[in-house]
Amino acid sequence: MNPALVFCFLFFTLLTPACSPQRPGVVTPSDATLPTERSGYVAGEGGVRLFYQVDGEGPDTIVVLHGGPGLNLEGLRPDLRPLGRRHTLLYFDQRGSGRSERPDQLRLTGAAMVEDIEAIRRAFRLERLTLFGHSWGGALAVLYGSSHPDRVERLVLVGPVPPRPHPYFDQYDAEQAARHDSVTNARLQRLGRIQELTRDPVRICRERFGLVKVGLTATLDLARKVRGDLCAGTLANVRGMDLLLRQVWSSLTVDGDPEGRYDFRPLAERIPVPGLVVHGAEDPMPLPGSEEWVRALPRGRLLVVPGAGHYPYAEQPELFFPAVEAFLAGAAQEQRVEPR
User: pTM for this one?
Assistant: First the structure.
């Protein structure tokens, strides 16, 4: 199955944009002063305006990469607030997502998104990055780490999309469909088509992802614990969410392979830093895909969270955050929680 058809939920120093002479309100890496506001815009690859948000007051900075492609930082920010007690969290909307600028279609690529992370690093004068990526954001963290291995300190990959599509996306698709009745599956398909055309894409998006979350979490009650807004952003970005997803995945497949084939395992092998892969035991994304990430990462560890689906930080925070904090603090032992 072409992964472009599957939604993957798709996880400092401080911080106000000075005005650049070319793009008012946008901080460029060459600006003499750091951004000092808690939110604003910086210039990404090719000058694309990227919206950022800073939370927390900790001495170290974690750069958070949201899922999708096409979702937004508000999909994660409300649920990751516990990390802000000890760390500074730097979120940004990826190009074409949330409140960031949507460039022309040819610049909606995985390679450009990798260089956007590098532009963020330079704009905020961060020597090395701890990257926290959810779903698609986990793969994006690996893409960046393989291109800039000397700029990465640690990786936390939460519910990451698998490092290769087959057989995992077929299994994911089947499991997702099995968690909904036929009426709901038909409704989801129709909502996806409407979202690309309607004048009110946010309303349609919220109805759509309200249904999707039920299939991604361990239980209906846990779905209600996920507070992130997966549909925040400009109308154009929310309306074009599916288009962006298809465009980015197409840019990452092997020579534009129509079957959607890619293999990120050799890229993961280039990243020598500690990496924690977190997988909810009830996530429809197959666990063997996360196990492949752990085998590919030279210093990979696995955390399996019982009673959680695709959002373990929201579904089982009492298990998730202590283990992640231990990893961030440099605990040497493998952090693994077995399903009961």
Answer: 0.87
